[in-house]
Prior knowledge:
- Chain B: Pfam families: DeoC.
- Chain B: This is deoxyribose-phosphate aldolase.
- Chain B: It catalyses: 2-deoxy-D-ribose 5-phosphate = D-glyceraldehyde 3-phosphate + acetaldehyde.
- The complex is a heterodimer.
- By secondary structure, chain A is of the alpha/beta class.
- Chain A is built from 29 helices and 31 strands.
- Chain B is an alpha/beta fold.
- Helices cover 45% and strands 9% of the residues of chain B.
- Chain B contains ten helices and seven strands.
- In chain B, helix 8 (186-203) links the parallel strand 5 and strand 6.
Amino acid sequence: MAATTGATSSAPSQSATVAAESTESIADIFASMSYGPAPEADNVVQAWLEDKKRAFGHFIDGKYHQPAGRKVYEVKNPANGKVLCTTMRGESEDVELAVKAARKAHTTWSKLAPHVRARHIYSIARHVQKHARLFSVLESMDNGKTFRETRDADIPIVVRHFYHYAGWAQLSDTEMSNWKSIGVIGGIVPWNFPLMLLTWKLAPALAMGNTVVLKPASYTSLSAILLAEVCAEAGLPPGVFNVVTGSGAFGSMLAAHPDVDKVAFTGSTLVGQKLRKLTAGTGKKISLELGGKSPFIVFDSADLDSAVEGVVNAIWFNQGQVCSAGSKLLVQETVYDKFIDKLKERLTHFRVGSSLDKTMDMGAIVDESQRASVEEFVQSARDEGAEVYQASACFPSAGCFYPPTLITKVQTVSKVVQEEIFGPVLVALPFRTAKEAVSLANNTRYGLAGSVWTENVSLALEVALLIKAGAIWVNAHNLFDAAAGFGGYKESGFGRDGGKEGLYEYAIPRWEERPRPANEDIDYSKFGATLQGRPTYADNLLPVLEGGSAAGVPAIDHTYKFYYGGAQKRPDATYVRAIKTSEGKAMAHVGEGNRKDVRNAVEVAHKAAPGWGKRAAYNRAQIMYYLAENIELRRQEFADRLSLQTGRTADSCLNEVSLSIQRLFYWAAYADKYGGTVQETTLYGATVKIHEPVGVIGILCPDEYPLLGFVSLLAPAIVRANCVVIVPSEIHPLSALDLYQVFETSDIPGGVVNILTGSKDHLAKYLVEHQDIQSVWYFGSEAGSKYVEYVSAENVKRTWVNYGLSRKWEDPEQGEGEEFLYQVTQVKNIWIPMETSLPIDNNTVGHFSCRFCFVLY
Amino acid sequence: MSERNTGVNWNESWIKDVKVNLSAVKARADTLGTRRCVKKKWQAAWLLKAAACIDLTTLAGDDTVVNVQRLCYKAKNPIRADLVEALGVKQLGITCGAVCVYPSRVGEVKQSLKECGGSAIPIASGIYEEVQQMREACGEAHMKTILATGECGTMANVYKASMVCMMAGADFIKTSTGKEGVNAILPVGLVMVRAIREYYKRTGYKVGFKPAGGIRSAKEACVWLSMMKEELGDEWLTPKLFRLGASSLLLDVERQLYHYVYGRYAATHEFAMS
Lengths: 857, 274
């Protein structure tokens, strides 16, 4: 059968239906060489559904829980519209019950010996493996994705994840010795990889000793329920893993439950933002794995034929309903036409059809509403005059399907180029140089993934580093493995699923208890309002402070300015605030920063960031030592100043200065010892984890320990190549300001360290509202912490807040260590397959598909 | 149908800057067999096609008229008559693609087969001029060039060797003799058919492809067929443009067809040996 080619802007022509084909004789087929249907049997799934009377409840505390009187969802197979069963629409008391069970189970589960937890997780892996076929068929029927993918990707990755994290459970005492479980995890996962993404939450959560209440997507709850049943079969104690089903609002109830200690979410950026706001100020941890618009960059030095197949994996894997889908194709202009021709040719033998049919490249879209949304995007491109190419060798006449789509003649201003379509739709843009390719790749609010196609290794690595995203594949796309974390930059979220980096999302430092702030309502519109200072003539100490001159001769006035862009700068509004001694006498004036000062400081910080990142780690360490050396030289002066501000004893203040010097040495040491590791994934090649800087960090320092607190936050940020806009203690800022003279004389490039003073909350407001700050750290009040977390949702920036609690900065356990390293870095994993020589060694393990050859039993 | 490949003038630019990424090629080759499969009567039809594309080969030092003759008769009647009858394909007159023997045995083959199928002459590949001279020497006979891909070192070399042979006028390019240590493998086949596709695009000549060695199961044969279908299109699914150099494969094909017809697994001895 000749491939049918859809012309521009036309729907794909439909091939003969299966029923018509079945009248063909063998002789006819010998001539046509067509593919017939090759369906995977669904009888075991049907029997399982029958066992449950096709009506599912929640799975709580080790058993099905089916409260009466609940509304239900009708679950349909998207490929044929047939109703499979119903699932329950949970209500608040169901959340209550599940969280209670999880809370109870946590008391014992978290205290089990690591080896015992490892055995449990290992047992889950084995049991999922034993039921792999059932899971694969069920997932395909529930979601509409092809059985080939559930069999070769989803389920093997699930199994691999449980094995990998069984290992982390075993090693949790040694490898995570400074960390402990958080408590009850509320997991909320989407419908595109229902079982796989829940496993990415469940496995590390269990490994660290947490218990889980999971809410799957309402379209696709069945594999989660089956997993809960299989976990019970595998001997997992009741309450450790609970599944509750329901609507999005029901998910919010789970996230908001006071006894849920952490929310782990994968899904849309919009919902992620809602959850961030919902949990703001509660003391809960949160990790968000959100949307993407990931670039697929083809250079003229690439193997174009292989890159065409790469595109197939990138955008037509799982109907393009993949957060890391390579949906933005960037092709060097010298090979653009050739590549687009090849891609179009490839689509003529692309097969779309029944999810259980083993001859299909692509299955059904999860739901009609999703299909309509995809179509709306494509129509918008047509309306703009873009060229829409849709073709496939076969396309079903019924069911919820959408053809593979290639859109050309579009530019960066188009909606289809900017937004995540979450369907099988690819947009293609040409580029001229590598620099332009990187700019186009980063011209998005997302930063989840990307791929680079070239045989030039130097080019591949540099582009991989320059793309701001959490996973970069070289000459491949959509490779996943438990040993490498997956997660985003920018509005693609924060936190990682997978690898050791994934464990930190389910752990808190051993010394810490989950904060439970009062979480009082605040008026977001009024927060951070400030009134600038007026003269303080009554309490003035200024004339005599630094005197030493003869009586009656005033000291020379010393008014501190801001320090940003490598120079001292006056406040925009030229207001000052008086800084007082412990006795309430004004001892100096500092600038009162406002939003324009924040704007200026952030601007220079971004200018400095690329160059600072390229500086050798050795050089960054040297600058730390230089700071330490200068504080050492002025030890007494710093101590006196601290004492005057805080009223603490001379000894205590000298100790703070000593500790600050020690801390600088500590972070200087880490300048060249936390670059990353090679991950042991299933890829034959190198999967390199890089601890990249977060970017520009806004830091609001605590009032306790004016010098040590400042140094403890500043040093880790800048040694790991971030640039900072840092606000020292609001009441005792002078010790930090005294350092700007040291910065000025050091090698530190202007713009790396930027110091503003004034009202903490006022500056916090403008820092967290700034769209081009990547993380905000706030050490202040409960209300301020809540504000920062709430407002950060706007562009999904990372935050680190103290909920009004102080920490012992002098104690190394609390004032330095892994928690700080976690906050100053973000993980990028670069996947670099290798292999050039023939004959091929068949023992090398390549890509995930069909290379997961687990031996059963 | 386009005419036979006459070759083209030497053009270095066609083999300059060839980029082949082995890992990515392997990734694609790995999924060829998982993205497509054929079942039931489609499988039967595809297996018959495989049989029609098989070159039965014997290139052994102890070949005599006895085994060569046996091979010829098997090539003419590759599938048991009752199976052919039951499958309803008698009218297709399916035979194997060819019988390949040493030149000294060609006479015996001619005697055994009333109509001569063995008009293809395999040539071990060399550089352009050499192949071109051989092409001239072949005259009307079709020329297959064997790339000995196991010795090529890299996939880029496999691609270049394929392109050079086609430029010099090869009618078929073949992975290997089938008697070497390194057998036909899908990644190599994929690179070769991509070269064929590129050559076709540039010249309009359709060049045939023959993987040889190591293809033993009916299932593998279907994967090779589907690779041809996917990468080159249906026109290549004929013995004119696709041959399988695999002698033991025929037995498995016959057994699978037996199972299709009778629903039982056959014993080896139930099929005429070749």
